[in-house]
Write a structure and sequence with these properties.
Length: 384
Amino acid sequence: MSTIEIFYFAKTTISFLNLLTEHIFIKRTLNSYRFILIMAEYCKCHEPHLDITIDENEIEKGAVEIIKAIRPSWPLDQLQFKLFTNGITNKLVGVWYPGHYNEMVLVRVYGHKTDLLINRKDETRNIRILYQAGYAHSLYATFNNGLAYEFLEGVTLTPETVRQPEIYTLIAKRMAQMHLLAPNHDEMSKDPVVWSKIEQFMKLMPKEFSDPDKQLQFTKLIKPYAVLEKEYQFLKETLSKTNSPVVFSHNDLLLGNVIYNRDENIVTFIDYEYSGYNYQAFDIANHFAEFPGLEFPDYSYFPEKHLQKTWLKVYLQTYNNTTKVPESEINQLYDEVNKFVLLPHFLWGCWGLIQSLHSYIDFDYLRYAAIRFDEYFRKKAELF
């Protein structure tokens, strides 16, 4: 075992602890200081899998069973719980005991039928890879319908805080660093994942609802499937012609998936359910599209041109390992991002329709889908 220190940029050192050196190969591209990490065997020692299924309506009771297995020395009669309520895909509870809050274990129970949307094997693979690279929390265990993993100190963002320069600068740099990773795994496609994901979602989208009230709302708020199918073909034909690089992306960087630690002045990205190779411009555009918030998005918070270009300059300084970024390059990326912003609205609109059919979480997914599709058509009218 050894610690490999990689000088990732001129002044940035990333340490990878407890990796066998023969399992990592590093090569330098001829025209940059980027490193491509090729993980031949990204982790031989996987976390344990527990044959436990948690009832999402009794999540604390189920979490105790997880703690018994992975923290056998913890006093069960002193356990404390914190239910995190801002998620709209899964249910999440934190478990600790007095005096050990920083050792909290997070237990996430997958939402009902979310396996239709998310490849959980890919998700755990992504977490392992990104943890080894210093980008994700540690995974303690998997169980039949969820994960147990490390708690990270910090706060999630709001439409106000994500616009603060001291925070969005950290996000831009961190995203650029993530985009420079190039994990190479046999089961990981290098094609842009967004097209197959939308096609998957469109096959799963409901065409009608058995509940009369919901069906009435559905026909009132959502355009016919044939219209949406035509829009998808337009998006694929138009955006697949761009020259946006395909990079390893988060693909779901909403405000709740960024943890800001003020004391350490760092941000950490969480929830890698949709991560994979994708267009650079998509990952950035998706993040910008989340500036307005989630449950009641206010699109006046969508980043204006000046903020976007400032953000993109910071991103490109890190991505290109230079302090001098030509204005033309910033403008090019700005144009790409603002075309690609259509894609996340369309993608998450489809997602909302599926969730409106299956999810037990108290959230108006149908209204959310309508909001995203409405913003898609509004933006499209501006751009084309």
